[in-house]
Design brief:
Strand content: 15-25%
CATH topology of the largest domain: BirA Bifunctional Protein, domain 2
Shape: elongated
CATH architecture of the largest domain: 2-Layer Sandwich
Number of helices: 16
Helix content: 25-40%
Distance between the termini: 58 Å
Strand order of the largest sheet: 1-5-6-11-10-9-7-8
Radius of gyration: 28 Å
Largest sheet: 8 strands, mixed
Number of domains: 2
């Protein structure tokens, strides 16, 4: 029978890749919790309407990239292409949107039918952060500062923060009219097929096109920051003032529009020059009005998402912690006692392994060396009879015979000595 292979664009993650992902997730918990964010878990499967209403019918995500299918009752369901809409739906259903400032983070798999490429798969993973309930520019600034803190905690430093404002319901329509007029005379020889469609349905996306000819012929396109209303201009200036005071370097990018319709005012992206043409590793912004469009209260919000695959490319490898001990059993009669001794050590907080079957001393010692364990614990016939164990210090050298009941305290003392050196 032919073996079953994985679907193209869906990756298996073994160590060390899974170790890097665990590091990314744990660092998110550590950093975000210091800013008052709590973890939320939402389903990967939602009603299709949620994404068509939140992301926008005319976006590439909805029109080309979603995994959508009917269930057995004919309801249209979609594997989530992004996290924000699902988080908003959860906050609305649980009546948390509109009850003060709600601050949550989530992580997990997303799904888009795209051409698999470096750092981008059809099943990909994101870290998602959402703060709902405040319109203040100080929240925008703090979110960006937290994102910077998070990326630094991951060990990343050579990144560029790109910043823009997309205006609001009052000033963006005015800008869109100006932009449509600019794009009016652009024909196929100047714009790609997608942008020929976008200039009518979603002209902002033309500014974000990566096709060289589109970038060339729209280089002199009007800038949205030149058409901000007084309130949006003041909001953007306040965000920049805080970032400047905090010493966060950023670059103003008037072509930064993001790919989803719900963004307003502050928008940002973190890019790297080390992972090829798909350089964005994180992005987000403000989405006032999104909650109301999904049937909730008319409350503002701001957030961001980080692509975990791209973060993993930048991080490289993460060193896995070596075990504290490896147990070597010289007498097959000691296998039971060895397993129970290892269990006692694990209860005491140590990490390590014990054999399940009789093997040669040579092969067991070779495995102990290879594991990188701090201690090799040898249990032979004499030790079984005397209730002791031989402790070989695999780093400092030497060995000592220790009573099995005293073993946890002995190992802890030796590890503390090693850390103090």
């Amino acid at each position: 029978m032919d073996k079953i292979q994985k679907i193209k664009g869906f990756a298996d993650l073994f160590p060390p890749d899974s170790t890097v992902f665990a590091f990314i997730e744990q660092t998110a918990r550590d950093v975000f919790s210091r800013y008052g964010y709590r973890e939320l878990r939402v389903p990967v499967l939602e009603r299709t309407e949620l994404f068509s209403r939140s992301i926008g019918e005319e976006t590439d995500v909805v029109q080309k990239e979603m995994y959508t299918f009917p269930d057995r009752k004919g309801r249209s369901l979609t594997l989530r292409p992004e996290a924000t809409a699902g988080v908003m739906r959860a906050l609305i259903e649980d009546k948390r949107a509109g009850e003060g400032l709600a601050k949550f983070f989530a992580y997990g798999p997303m799904f888009r039918y795209e051409r698999p490429q470096k750092g981008r798969m059809r099943q990909f993973h994101q870290i998602d952060v959402e703060a709902v309930g405040s319109p203040e520019p100080l929240l925008d600034a703090e979110v960006l500062l937290m994102l910077d803190q998070y990326l630094r905690a991951l060990g990343l430093s050579e990144l560029t923060v790109e910043l823009n404002s997309l205006g609001c319901r009052e000033c963006r329509p005015v800008f869109l009219d100006v932009l449509r007029e600019f794009l009016k005379g652009m024909h196929k020889e100047k714009l790609c097929d997608d942008c020929m469609r976008r200039k009518l349905t979603n002209p902002l996306r033309v500014l974000d096109c990566k096709v060289p000819q589109c970038k060339e012929f729209t280089a002199d396109a009007p800038r949205i920051t030149d058409h901000l209303c007084p309130d949006c201009a003041e909001h953007f200036a306040a965000v920049r003032r805080i970032l400047d005071a905090a010493g966060l370097d950023y670059t103003l990018n008037p072509r930064l529009v993001r790919g989803l319709d719900y963004y307003v005012r502050t928008t940002f992206e973190i890019v790297s020059g080390n992972i090829g043409s798909q350089s964005s590793v994180a992005g987000g912004g403000r989405y006032d009005g999104l909650v109301a469009s999904l049937g909730g209260a008319d409350v503002p919000g701001v957030g961001f998402a980080c692509g975990m695959e791209r973060l993993a490319l930048l991080i490289g490898g993460v060193t896995e912690a070596a075990p504290d001990f490896v147990l070597v059993v010289l007498d097959p009669a000691g296998l039971d006692r060895g397993l129970l001794l290892a269990q006692d050590l694990r209860r005491a907080g140590f990490a390590g392994e014990a054999p399940f079957a009789a093997k040669s001393v040579k092969s067991q010692m070779r495995a102990a060396d290879k594991s990188g364990a701090s201690f090799c614990l040898v249990l032979g016939a004499d030790e079984l009879a005397q209730g002791t164990v031989v402790v070989k210090n695999m780093r400092a050298g030497g060995q000592e015979t220790v009573g099995q009941d005293l073993l946890p305290a002995f190992l802890r003392a030796r590890l503390e000595e090693a850390q103090g050196e």
